[in-house]
Amino acid sequence: MNVDGTLETEMIVTNLEYYPGMEIAQHLSLVQGSSVRAKHAGRDFMASLKSIFGGELVGYTELLHESREEALQRLILQAQSVGANAVLNVRFSTSSIANGAAEIFIYGTAVILRPAA
Amino acid sequence: MTQLAIFAVLLLLGYGFGQLAERRHYRSIKKREQEMTALPAIASRHPPSGEYYQQRLVIGSVVVASDYFKSFVANLVNVFGGRIKSYEPLLDRGRREAMLRLKQAAKSQGANIVFNVKYETSRIGGGITTIEVLAYGTALIPLESE
After folding, report:
1. Helix (H, G, I), strand (E, B) or coil at B122
2. Which residue segments constitute the domains of chain B, with CATH numbers given?
3. SS percent in chain B: helix, strand, coil, step 5
4. Of A31, B3, B25, B36, which cross-links A78 as Cys (Cβ 3.0–4.6 Å)?
5. For the segment A60-117, what is each residue's pLDDT rounded down to a tens digit?
6. What is the CATH number of domain A12-115?
7. How many residue pairs from chains A and B have C-beta atoms closer than 8 A?
């Protein structure tokens, strides 16, 4: 994923259920990608200082962004390994599993798309 | 005594800088929202069929913290229950900022609409209330006619 929140890959990844102009040739499987990240001690210290004053904590925004990128890469790898060319209906979920650690989970349906007849 | 002084200083700092940050953030949000009115982001799951579009997943996310003062007030209110007014702007700011970043991502791809937008909010860490807001959706990018 790029810094501006867009994805650079051959794989079609979308959170819609179909793709205009294409039809689903085969549903393959549910694919998923996840990533657990802990906060960096230095970043954490700066962030806790900054949180006294309020406002955006840029360090954490970046951290979660990287984490999401990694989870998405894993989702795409898994989709490639089952032979898909698209992942439809993708969903994101985040849970904080312990103090200072968050899990990013992304899942979707791997399918093979072909141009509509 | 020293502890009380530190507490008072933190409260004051939180109040002053928190208010300042909030006001500045709202100004910037309103300005950018004006610029983005041409690009709608909607929650519909069904894009128009027949027309040829490229689809691309776009996301926008932000981590925002409340401040020391507001967290303290919220903790007080928590004792009696009721509406916690001091947290409402925090969530509002987070959502609007995430949406603006989503739209910015869509715009840089040349999209003219974003479908199936979903929000997700999660709490980060303890201490002063910090939230992460994620907005994601599918940008429709018109294919150039050949």
Report:
1. strand
2. 2-142 (3.30.110.70)
3. 50, 25, 25
4. A31
5. 888 888 899 999 999 999 999 999 999 999 999 988 877 767 889 999 999 999 887 7
6. 3.30.110.70
7. 149
